């Protein structure tokens, strides 16, 4: 599928240099462990999502900020190399490129600390200055690694342009009702869902449809009618209050692989959902496609360099 058949995707948010150290196990508080390797790679949730969507056939524009430094150059080169339009990424003269310090253990699990750097300078004015990028866009993809004011400005601009606003509520933060009202599709993991809803447990992977339907109703009460809840290795659940009653809860089966590095898997998933929605696909199909894209991403080290192309995903789905 060529990019010309897709609606355009605008991704607004963060670009980080990932400083990743590999180790047998993650250290406990106050403990030092020996590392087994180190790498500096392009990352940041929004840059990752943009690259993932572009590799999967999307026509993607990225709005963000980097520092005037080698890390910023690396990030711009990686995004452009994946086919992303980087003309709306501003180079800050006052702040260094954002950084994520990541530890990854032998099972592929990780912990991450981010320093915003230039991402912290991204403001609603940058969204306004990039208004032309939203013209004719099908999907606007957002996360919370930049200020809420900037996220809401992008959501409103996307909404006014008639785009589907896809909000990945990560890293978790409380959002105002005004942002919820602008969100067409919320992408959230089970832990984040429990924090957002604030009452009652989120069902586990074995729960029946009735239990998930109650969660759907709680999201709908918040004005969030289309929600995709990811469950890690247990797949995901699509909650769609706009669908016919029989289709309001859809379970997406997990894709089993050997995980090497889970860093950026959620971004691969988000970018894949954005690409499929921009291509006109239904949310449940987008989630199933994204599950495979994310599974392939964890089989390789790193983030953007680990992301799959359309042919890889379709081959794993048995269509290639």
Quick structural gist:
With 320 residues, this protein is of the alpha/beta class. It has helices spanning 45-55, 70-81, 124-129, 148-160, 177-182, 190-197, 209-221, 265-278, 283-297, 310-316; strands at residues 8-12, 16-23, 35-43, 59-67, 85-92, 98-104, 110-115, 137-142, 164-168, 185-189, 226-230, 236-240, 249-252. Strands 5-4-1-8-9-10-11-12-13 form a nine-stranded mixed beta sheet, sandwiched between helices. Strands 3-2-6-7 form a four-stranded mixed beta sheet.
Helices and strands in order, then pairings?
Blueprint: E1 8-12, E2 16-23, E3 35-43, H1 45-55, E4 59-67, H2 70-81, E5 85-92, E6 98-104, E7 110-115, H3 124-129, E8 137-142, H4 148-160, E9 164-168, H5 177-182, E10 185-189, H6 190-197, H7 209-221, E11 226-230, E12 236-240, E13 249-252, H8 265-278, H9 283-297, H10 310-316
List keywords for this structure.
320 residues; alpha/beta; UDP-N-acetylmuramoyl-L-alanine:D-glutamate ligase; nine-stranded mixed sheet; four-stranded mixed sheet; 10 helices; 26% strand; disordered N terminus
Walk me through this protein's architecture.
- There is one protein chain.
- The chain has 320 residues and is an alpha/beta fold.
- It has one domain (3-15, 45-94, 119-316): Ribokinase (UDP-N-acetylmuramoyl-L-alanine:D-glutamate ligase).
- Helix content is 33%, strand content 26%.
- It has helices spanning 45-55, 70-81, 124-129, 148-160, 177-182, 190-197, 209-221, 265-278, 283-297, 310-316; strands spanning 8-12, 16-23, 35-43, 59-67, 85-92, 98-104, 110-115, 137-142, 164-168, 185-189, 226-230, 236-240, 249-252.
- The protein has a nine-stranded mixed sheet, with helices on both faces. The protein has a four-stranded mixed sheet with strand order 3-2-6-7.
- Helix 5 (177-182) links the parallel strand 9 (164-168) and strand 10.
- Helix 1 (45-55) crosses helix 8 (265-278).
- The longest helix has 15 residues, at 283-297.
- The model is unreliable at 1-5 (pLDDT under 50).
């Amino acid at each position: 599928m060529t990019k010309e058949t897709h609606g355009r995707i605008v991704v607004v948010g963060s670009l980080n240099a990932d400083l990743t150290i590999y180790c047998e196990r993650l250290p406990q508080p106050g403990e030092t462990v020996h590392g087994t390797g180190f790498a500096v790679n392009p990352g940041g949730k929004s840059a990752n999502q943009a690259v993932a969507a572009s590799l999967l056939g999307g026509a993607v524009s990225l709005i963000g900020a980097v520092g005037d430094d080698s890390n910023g150059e690396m990030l711009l080169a990686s995004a452009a190399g994946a086919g992303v339009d980087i003309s709306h990424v501003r180079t800050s003269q006052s702040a260094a490129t954002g950084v994520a310090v990541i530890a990854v253990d032998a099972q592929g699990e990780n912990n991450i600390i981010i320093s915003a750097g230039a991402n912290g300078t991204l403001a609603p004015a940058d969204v306004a200055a990039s208004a032309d990028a939203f013209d004719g866009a099908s999907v606007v993809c957002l996360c919370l690694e930049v200020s809420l004011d900037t996220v809401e400005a992008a959501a409103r601009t996307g909404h006014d342009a008639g785009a589907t606003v896809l909000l990945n509520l990560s890293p978790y933060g409380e959002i105002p009702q005004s942002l919820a009202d602008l969100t067409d599709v919320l992408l959230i993991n089970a832990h984040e869902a429990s924090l957002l809803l604030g009452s009652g447990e989120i069902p586990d992977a074995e729960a029946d449809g009735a239990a998930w339907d109650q969660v759907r109703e709680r999201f709908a009460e918040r004005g969030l009618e289309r929600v995709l809840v990811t469950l890690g290795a247990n797949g995901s659940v699509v909650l769609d209050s706009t669908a016919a009653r029989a289709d309001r809860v859809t379970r997406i089966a997990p894709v089993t692989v050997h995980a090497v590095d889970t860093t950026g898997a959620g971004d691969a998933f988000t970018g894949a959902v954005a690409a499929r929605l921009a291509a006109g696909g239904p949310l449940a199909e987008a989630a199933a496609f994204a599950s495979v894209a994310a599974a392939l991403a964890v089989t390789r080290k790193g983030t953007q360099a680990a992301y799959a192309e359309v042919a890889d995903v379709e081959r794993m789905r048995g269509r290639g």
